[in-house]
Amino acid sequence: QISCDRSHQNYDICSVNGPTTLDPTTSTFFLVDPAPASAEKIRPYPRKWENFVMQRIEEVTISSGPSSPKCEVQHNVPALVFSVGGYTGNFWHEFNDGFVPLFITVHSIFPNQEIVLVIDKARGWWISKYAELLHAFSKQPIILLDNDTATHCFTSATIGLISHGYMTVDPTLMPNSKTFVHFRGLLDEAYSHGRIRNRNNSPSTRPRLMLMSRRGGLGRVILNQVEVKRVAEDTGFEVTVFEPTPKTSLRQAYALINSSHAMVGVHGAALTHSLFLRPGSVFVQVVPLGLEWVAEVCFGTSAKAMGLDYMEYKINAEESSLIEKYNKNDTVIKDPVAFRGKSWSDAAMNIYLKEQNVKLDLFRFREYLKKVYKKAKRFMDKGEG
Fold it and tell me: 183 in a domain, yes or no?
């Protein structure tokens, strides 16, 4: 009655196919079975290949034997167990390693079924931030594995989350052919209940553009952001500069972005807010030197999968702050792929992700924005608000 699938690169997943009791104080599920006692251990986080992170994920034990602890809280539904103890606090990872795999797992194993979410390492701020989205997955009270002390009984349990890769829902692997569009629909239900929320009482004649902002010290800052905003306004956009913080309400962020016609931002975790754009709107990812592949897998794939008009503005060497530190003929500048090699070393990540800022060529970017404007205006004129 205990089955584990450890054949995947991204994740392990185990199931208890029958009544089971959870003792949260030892992170153990007990299954009464007259057969000889046995146990399985699993770290329920879908980055199995990444040892550094997986070492921080606590093991959950599944034990079968002749007895189990007395049940104190009865749930007449299954449990789904996962950890958020990996890259918690990084907005992209919270979706890539959490909510997208959660969506896949729920629709693969528990379609149209109530479940109880049992979550390890979920801090109070995390539960508060994502309360509405978690509620869209399950109406049942959440069990916090590292805070609870009562034993809980379930009709069955699944431990671990299924991942299809970076920001991907593969419909060919889904029993009900769900796609990334369906995941986007879940976000819509969680944060707007299917309603488009326009910020303006009176309709604007100018397409609304969201300019994503990053502070200094993180890298990938637009150094001439004030001028870029002015150029976008001159092109015809109504521009809002959006700089999310850990305390930014996701409902407010959703309302703001969901009512926009275009978004522009430099590659970074905050571009995960592109999930809040309506299908058909324009999403421009500014791609710094050396980040072409990571830009595509982090945001390009999901943008195209959910029907955004996705565009990339790949900067020239002269638009990168690295040109001030390295010679233009240096491999760092001239051939980032060759410099990086086959894997992202810490040194390469620091150079391209943390040391690098961008100063956009205003003439070149203005010409690019004219194309963006045409697409955004067309989207707006379709009566999309």
Answer: no
Q: Judge if pTM exceeds 0.90.
A: yes
Asked if residue 192 belongs to a domain, the reply is no
153 and 220 housed in the same domain: no
> Can you say how many angstroms the Cα of residue 130 is from the centroid of all Cα atoms in its chain?
12
**For residue 43, what are the domain limits?**
2-167
In angstroms, rounded to a whole number, what is the distance separating the alpha carbons of residues 269 and 358? Answer: 16
Amino acid 37: pLDDT: 79
Rounded distance between C-alpha atoms, residue 6 and residue 85, angstroms: 20
C-alpha to C-alpha distance for 181 and 187, rounded to whole angstroms: 10
Q: Are residues 153 and 236 in the same domain?
A: no
List, for the chain, all residue ranges whose pLDDT scores fall below the cut of 50.
Answer: 199-202
Measured CA to CA, the distance from residue 287 to residue 160 in angstroms comes to: 33
Which is it for strands 238-242 and 143-144: parallel, antiparallel or unpaired? unpaired
Contact 148, 120 (CB under 8 A): no
CATH code for the domain of 339: 3.40.50
Co-location of 235 and 134 in the same domain = no
Alpha-carbon span 158 to 102, nearest angstrom: 12
363 and 241 inside one domain:
yes
Is the Cβ–Cβ distance between 242 and 256 less than 8 Å?
yes
Q: What's the rounded Cα separation, in Å, for the pair 1 and 15?
A: 8
What is the DSSP-derived secondary structure letter of residue 271? G
